[in-house]
Amino acid sequence: MSPNRHLHAWLLLLPAMAMLAAFTHIPAISTLLHSFFESPIAGKTGSFVGLDNFEFALEDDIFWQVLWNNFWYAVVTVPTSIVLALVMAIWVNSQMSGRAIVRLAYFTPTVLPMIAVANIWLFFYTPEIGLINNLLEKLGFEGQNWLGDPDLALPSLMVMTIWKEAGFFMIFYLAALQSLDQSLYEAAAVENSSRWQTFRRITWPLLMPTTLFILINALINAFKLVDHLFILTKGGPNNASNLLLYYIYENAFSFFDTAYAATLTTILLIILALLAWVQFGVLDKKVHYR
Amino acid sequence: MMARSLLRTDDFRQISMAEKVAAWILGFLWIMPLLFAFWAAFHSSEYTTSFDLLAPLTFEHFITAWDQAPFARYMLNTFAITGIILASQLVLCTLAGFALARMPFRGKGVVMALVMMQLMVMPEVLIVENYQTLAGLELIDSWTGVGLPYMASAFGIFLLRQTFATVPQALDDAARIEGCNLLQVLWKVYVPQAKPVYLAYALVSISYHWNNFLWPLVVTNTEASRPLTVGMAIFGAPESGVEWPIICAGTIIAISPLLAAFLIFQKQFVQSFMRAGIK
C-alpha cells in the first residue's frame, strides 16, 4: 500500500480518535493520577500523598457500604431482569393473540427517561398517600415507608430497575430467537422432544452468546445507572441505598473532595476493567458458536 | 412432508393458556406506571388514587405545570443537544468506521482496542475529570458542553465498521475506476448501503440522549442549557412542593415527544434496537 493511503486512513480516524482521547483515555489516566494527590485547595494543586486516598477508602465505612449495596444491587437485578427478559421474549415470540400490544407494554419503559419514570414511582412508594400503601390498606395490610426504611429502600430501587431493564433485554432475546436455525427444531419435532427439552437442549444453548452479551451490559448498567437515586432516595436513608457512582457524584459535587472522587472513580474503573477481562478473556472463548 | 414438519416446529412456539394469562398480567404491570401517570394528570387530585371511570377529565394540571417550569426552553435544549450529538456522531463514526473497515494501515488492532474501551468506560463514569476539562474550555452550561463527550461513539464506530465490511469490494472498485476519490467512494457507495444501520443507530442514540441525566446535570447550571431530564428532576424534587397530579402532567409533557415518536415508529424502534444488539 502506498504511504498516501496510510495517511488518508489516519486522517479519517483523527476526529473520532481525538474526541475519544480527550473524553475517555486522557480523563481515565488523569483520574488514576489524581487519586495519588490531595484535593486542590484554592486553585493550587494538592501535594502527592501516595496511596493515602486508597487507605482512606479502605477505612471509610460508607465506601464499604456503597460497594456492598452495589454488589447486592447487581446480584439481584441482573439475573432477575435477564430471566424475565427471556420469558417475555418467548411469550412475545409465540403465536398468542395480542402479542404486539404485550410487546409494546414490555418495551415502553425502555424508551422513557429514568428521571421521569422515577417521579411516577416516587408516588407509588410514598407513605400516607402513595399508591402501594393505599392498595395495601384497602386489602387490610399495613403500609410501609418503602423509601424511608433502611431495609426496604434498596429493594424498592431494585424493583424499579428490573421494571426498567427487562423490556430492553427482551429485545435482544427476541432478535436472537427470530434468527435461530429452524432445522434444529424440525429435528426436535421428528424426535418428539417436549417443549421443555427443546428449550433446554436447543434454545438455551443457542441463546448463550446473547445471554452473555446481555449479562455484561446489565452488569455495566448496574454500576452506571444511578439516575433514579436522585429522585427516589438520594442514597438514603443513611446511605442504605447509596451506589458507587452516586457516591462519586456526592464526593465530587456536594463535598467537593475531588481527590477522593478520583480515587473512587479509579476503583470503579478497576471493576469495569475486570468485567471487560471476564467478557473478552474468559467467557468469549468458552461460549463460541461461530 | 416438508409442510408437516414446518407445522411441527411451530408447536414449540405455542404457549399454554396459563402462560398467555401471565403474559397479559405482566404486560399490564409493565405499562401500569405510565397509565397511572396519564390518569393522575387528567383528573383532579381527589381522584388520584380513587379510580372512577366516570371521573371528570381536566387539563388544569397541564396548564399549572407549563406555567411552573420553562418546559418549552427545556424541550428546545433537549432537541438541540440530541441533534448536535447525533450529527457529530454520524460524521465521526462514518469516517472512523470506514477507515477501520476498508483501509489497511499499521496499528489497526490497537486503534480498535482503544475505540472499544469506550464501551466499558462511558462518559458517565468520568464525570469528575470531564467536568474539569469542560471548565477549562469554558463550555460549562452550553449545548456543546453537554454534547462533547458523546460525539465520538465506540458503539457507532463498531456498528458502521461491521456494516461497511460487508459492502461488496466490486462496488468500491467500480466507483474508483469511474474516478471517484476516497470521500466520494465513501459517500456514494458505502453510506447508501448502510442506510438501515444509520436509522437504527439514530433511533438508539436519540432515545439515549433524550433520556440522559447524570452528565447534563453536572455540566448545566441554568435553564439556558438544561435538558428536559434535568428540568424534570428539579421540577419533581420534593423540596419544590409541587403536587402529584402536576408532577404527572409535567412528566407527560416531558416524555410526550419521544413517546409519540415511539408509538408512530414502533416497528422501526424495536427493529433498530434489535439490529443494534445483534451487531
Architecture blueprint of SSEs:
The complex is a heterodimer of chains A (290) and B (279).
Chain A lengths: L2 H32 L17 H8 L1 H32 L6 H13 L2 H12 L5 H8 L11 H29 L3 H9 L4 H12 L1 H17 L2 H6 L11 H10 L4 H29 L4
Chain B lengths: L1 H10 L5 H26 L17 H9 L2 H32 L5 H13 L6 H10 L6 H5 L6 H11 L4 H9 L4 H12 L1 H17 L2 H6 L8 H9 L7 H21 L1 H13 L1
Helix pairs in contact in B: 2-14, 3-14, 4-8, 4-11, 5-8, 9-10, 11-15, 13-14
Key attributes of the depicted protein:
heterodimer; A: 290 residues; mainly alpha; MetI-like fold; 13 helices; 0% strand; globular; B: 279 residues
What is the compact description of this entry?
Chain A has 290 residues and is mainly alpha-helical. Helices cover 75% and strands 0% of the residues of chain A.
**What would you report as the Rg of chain B, rounded to the nearest angstrom?**
24 Å
Beta-strand content of chain B: under 5%
CATH superfamily of chain B: MetI-like
Largest interface: A-B, 102 and 97 residues
Count of DSSP H/I helices of chain A? 13
Question: CATH homologous superfamily of chain A?
Answer: MetI-like
Distance between the termini of chain B: 36 Å
Write down the Rg of chain A: 24 Å
Number of domains of chain B: 1
Could you name the CATH class of chain B? Mainly Alpha
- Compressed to H and E, one letter per element, the order of chain B equals HHHHHHHHHHHHHHH
Q: What features would you describe in this structure?
A:
The complex is a heterodimer of chains A (290) and B (279). Chain A is built from 13 helices and no strands. The longest helix of chain A has 32 residues. Chain B is mainly α and 279 residues long. Chain B has a single domain, classed as Orthogonal Bundle (MetI-like fold), CATH 1.10.3720.10. Chain B is globular, with a radius of gyration of 24 Å. Chains A and B meet through α1, α3, α4, α5 and α7 of A and α1, α2, α4, α5 and α6 of B.
